[in-house]
Amino acid sequence: MAPPSPAPAAMGRTGAARMTTTATAAPAAPAARAAEMANRDGKKAQLDEGLGVVDMKGPMVPQVAKLGDKYWEWVHKPSAQRSYRLFAGDLYEFFSWTPWWVIPIVWVPIITALSMDALGRLDWSMSPLALVSPAMVSTQVLALWPFLGIFLTGILMWSFLEYCLHRFLFHIILFPGTAFGIQFHFILHGQHHKFPLDRGRLVFPPMAGLMMTAPFYLVFHLTMAREVANALTAGALLGYIAYDLTHYYLHHGRPSTGYFQRLKRHHMQHHYRHSTLGFGISSKLWDFPFATLTPSSATRT
């Protein structure tokens, strides 16, 4: 005897359930395909951006030398990535990252000490430095107005040094055609041009800053009185702080009007359109006499 056929109501429920399941599952396949295509397109875009040589998600320094003659053009095409890995080693990677607020924390106390010494407000005679150098206990000090004049000269000196370093050191490859030359340039400045949206490697690491400051400081002390050398160094360091913090603000701040808006436009043109112009960052002062103003700055100063 044949089994009884299901009741019409039961059949309706079964059919509705089957249709509901099918209707719910149907969009899953297109969604999965779309996600797969997006992932594939993203990988292709990264491959294209790296010219098929550089993995944009991998450590940059070991890879950039592979670009060879293509490096210079590649590094001046800014990426939209907001972060990147610089080194393969975790320790190097950690010390390559510097928050903007570290700059005043490190340098303001040094500027203060140099200024106080130049004005005769510090007593070095009881310090270990007095055992190393009798010059450290010199009684010669500066009055306030001479100090301010030398201090302001240091600020002006920094602005010129900022322009020269940016134009004649940061924008050349010291050892062209070599892997070391490419890697050195990328670490020094190329990384900033390739990834201008990154926040962690925009200001100069204090240890590198100390290494660059030391030769100038020694030359000053060998060629002029200690109090003058200290006042000049203090002014130059304040100019440096202004440069580093202004540079950070131009990239990540939102000036709406006035001087900083014009300065931001000037600097963004340097990054995105005219990398051979616009070398002044904290100001456009030296771009005027050296004729390196960007087009918009030349018409709107």
Automatic annotation (TrEMBL):
Record has Transferase as a keyword: no
Keyword Membrane part of the UniProt annotation: yes
Cofactor: Zn(2+)
Domain of life where this protein originates: Eukaryota
Pfam families: FA_hydroxylase
Signal sequence bounds: none
Alphabetical UniProt keywords: Endoplasmic reticulum, Fatty acid biosynthesis, Fatty acid metabolism, Lipid biosynthesis, Lipid metabolism, Membrane, Metal-binding, Oxidoreductase, Transmembrane, Transmembrane helix, Zinc
Full protein name: Fatty acid 2-hydroxylase
